DNA sequence: TCCCTCCGTTTACAGTTGTAACTCTACATG
DNA sequence: CATGTAGAGTTACAACTGTAAACGGAGGGA
């Protein structure tokens, strides 16, 4: 059946990401606050935002708790889980042989702090200890190779 | 600004990625070959694959050239462009402050070759020369901070 | 010449996403 | 008590996705 394990996080659409980020940042809040914060960034109608909230609840990404007569929203998965899950989902689509190239591009274009860089370097050094000299392309059934 | 920028590549759906990867790998091929290769990985009907191909052409990701009486398909964007574009789109949804963390997770989970690692390290070293000590969260309009 | 088969085109249909109006209900207020 | 109102729920609707059957024309073989 459903619930419990989300064996690879529900898809989060772009609009949903925006809402989730607010929830993660604030921890918990009422739809009214959510709507106000959201409208400070996007001119979406109240209705639109409420629809998105309900969909997020249905997907199990948000949960509500009745307070007075309104609902307090909280996230059911952490921002880290969501970020890592989505990033991994994306990388799953890429040719195994070219993931490194894509990471390189990201590293060059994403803003990173000195601390981030240190951690990344440490991880790479660690990874180098067991990394292979090559990774095979997995774009075709098995036959022809990737260049 | 930059140059020749393609204002953010058409969205590529998961099914479409699978087809595109075959096209990128083979360079150019007829729908029949594409269908056969695809069916060796997924049990999609001919029809389904043909529909996807037409949609990819409509989106401008594939282009056709009439040969005899069938079409030869080729990609209009390179695999690298697509990979980088999609990866950047994903990262656009993430909190600026947490992109480093996500990259760290990817680096730890993605299979990388020694060469990939060396390049990544070189890029990081370069980046460290100008990296800031912190990056601000951009999840809320401006107000409240991220944790 | 006739039909079968291959390939491309049309149509289909449910589910998801973006976007939003409308409605219902319980309160607060006059 | 009569209402306006905030917050929740219902309905809507077009575009996009996943998945595929059905249709139509052209070439190859009988």
TrEMBL record, chains A, B:
One of its GO terms (molecular function) is DNA binding. SUPFAM superfamilies: Winged helix' DNA-binding domain. Keywords: DNA-binding, Transcription, Transcription regulation. It comes from the Bacteria. One of its GO terms (biological process) is negative regulation of DNA-templated transcription. Pfam families: Penicillinase_R. Coiled coil: none annotated. Belongs to the BlaI transcriptional regulatory family. NCBIfam families: CopY_TcrY (TIGR02698). This is CopY/TcrY family copper transport repressor. It comes from Secundilactobacillus silagincola.
């Amino acid at each position: 059946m459903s619930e419990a394990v989300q064996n690879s996080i529900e898809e989060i659409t772009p609009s949903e990401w925006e809402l989730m980020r607010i929830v993660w940042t604030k921890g918990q809040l009422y739809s009214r606050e959510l709507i106000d914060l959201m409208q400070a960034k996007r001119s979406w109608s109240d209705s639109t935002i409420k629809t998105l909230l309900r969909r997020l609840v249905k997907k199990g990404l948000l949960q509500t708790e009745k307070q007075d007569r309104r609902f307090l929203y909280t996230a059911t998965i952490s921002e880290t889980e969501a970020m890592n899950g989505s990033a991994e989902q994306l990388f799953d689509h890429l040719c195994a042989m070219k993931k490194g190239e894509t990471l390189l591009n990201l590293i060059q274009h994403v803003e990173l702090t000195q601390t981030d860089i240190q951690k990344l370097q440490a991880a790479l050094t660690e990874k180098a200890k067991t990394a292979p000299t090559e990774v095979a392309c997995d774009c075709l059934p098995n036959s022809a190779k990737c260049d």
